[in-house]
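Q: I have 342 residues here and want to know how they pack in 3D. Can you give me a structure?
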Amino acid sequence: MAALTPYLRASDTVDGVPSQEIKVVVSDTALARRVGHVITTAGGSPRHSEPHLVHKGIHLVRKSAGSPPGRRFGHLLWSDDNPRTTYVILPGADSASQKVLLRMVRAIAARTLLAAGWVPLHAACVTTTAGAVILLGGQGGGKTTAMLRLLDDAIRPASFVANDKVFLSPETAGRVEVRALPTAVGLRGPALRLFPALSRAAPAAAVSQNSGAARDADSREGRTYLTAQRVAEAFAVSQSEGGPLVTFVDVAYRGPGHSAWRPLALEERVAALHAAYLADGLLDDPHEHSRLHRDHGHSHHQRLQRCAAGVPAAAFSPGDDAAPILTAGMAGLLAQAERTLP
């Protein structure tokens, strides 16, 4: 599946050798039922929850995709003695099971990066010829719209990396590298109207972030979900797994009016990165995330401090004139970043 490529590349080691061996087992119905019974007996609902069973260092996690009656379940199996090999147990080889496989590989990639000390952030990311640009900001703050503007025409050439979650390389590395696990991009009506290319792509390719199944906008959320691949195609840009970090922007929408752009002082850069730090909730599996956070939490904060001191950054408050202000601000910020590159 081509959709697996960004996750496999993102969790590669620096020298390009995969850090995980993933063995896929397409089981018969009886085996799938037995594995499902084991994990359900451990305390999980057979229909909706995704429990994590640990017994003598052996981990068994259930994943699901789709909505009833088409929901499919699969299982991840690995051992603390051999964490670099993960078994994926699927009930079949149909398209619904492939969606479960996609979720599983994304979870394996996240676990691999976290176990290696990579720092998780709530952020969007694009790359330029200079390197990676990350966009921070709370939910509804405008970082997704700002990212789409960068892909549309604010900086060229640009590549799409991710819209929601990125990882910074661990403290043991030199220059800060960015990697990401792209997910579907949720777009509200105003954002679609801003970008005609996305409006044209939406009817044919809208997906549910939870199920991955093709459908129109979810009326309950008021959003249309497009795959990362479809977003890149709409803007005629490539997809990238990341690159060296050169700058970041803290985006915060404050209502109609003029846009504002200003450089961030060191203390503000530190605060912005810490506010975006995903201390929990990154993995579907809270048990595994809490264990990895205990192992690396202190070094994560040190890495954010050094990152803030090493790259320039700006604060952007989008308003009615967001496009030209963002374009001009990014041009100046990238020029500043390139002057500081080794």
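Q: Anything worth noting?
A: Confidence is low (pLDDT under 50) at residues 44-48, 205-220. Residues 50 and 107 are 12 Å apart (CA to CA).
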